[in-house]
Design goal:
- This protein is mainly alpha-helical.
- It has one domain.
- Helices cover about 70% and strands about 5% of the residues.
- It contains five helices and two strands.
- The chain has helices at about 5-10, 20-40, 50-70, 80-100, 105-125; strands spanning about 15-20, 75-80.
- The protein has a two-stranded antiparallel sheet.
- Helix 2 packs antiparallel against helix 3 (about 50-70), helix 2 crosses helix 4 and helix 4 (about 80-100) runs antiparallel to helix 5 (about 105-125).
- The two termini are about 25 Å apart.
Length: about 130
């Protein structure tokens, strides 16, 4: 493998862009709150808590900005770690919904979780990691 190709494959990938509906953004906010509650309740049990708090702190205004927009055609950049955190939050929120009996939110949450799983798989493949 040439040095140039090797160097290129190790460079960070540009942020991903995706569109979300209003209900999906609200679900993402709930998922992020669930993730944040876990961070606050069990910080010692988690590695990289400082990084996690920074990522969550950066995601909250992005999601709020999405809700405030009048033009839903505009994109919001999400990097790989933000997508991973949102996916993790969605999984945690899905488990919370399953336990709470909020059936009306289960299917949309599951669908959004699947969408994020595909994004994470794509990122992992692009970075040469298996899923």
């Amino acid at each position: 493998m040439s040095k140039r190709k090797k160097r290129t494959s190790q460079q960070p990938h540009p942020p991903s862009h995706t569109f979300f509906s209003l209900p999906a953004v609200r679900l993402l906010q709930e998922a992020l709150r669930t993730f944040e509650r876990t961070l606050l309740q069990q910080p010692a049990a988690l590695s990289n808590v400082t990084l996690a708090k920074q990522v969550v702190g950066g995601l909250k205004p992005k999601l709020e900005e999405l809700l405030q927009r009048e033009d839903w055609e505009l994109e919001i950049p999400l990097d790989g770690i933000e997508i991973q955190f949102l996916w993790t939050g969605m999984q945690m929120y899905l488990l919370e919904l399953m336990g709470s009996g909020q059936q009306e939110r289960l299917l949309p949450c599951f669908a959004l979780c699947q969408q994020f799983r595909q994004l994470v798989e794509h990122i992992d493949q692009a970075q040469g990691r298996g899923f």
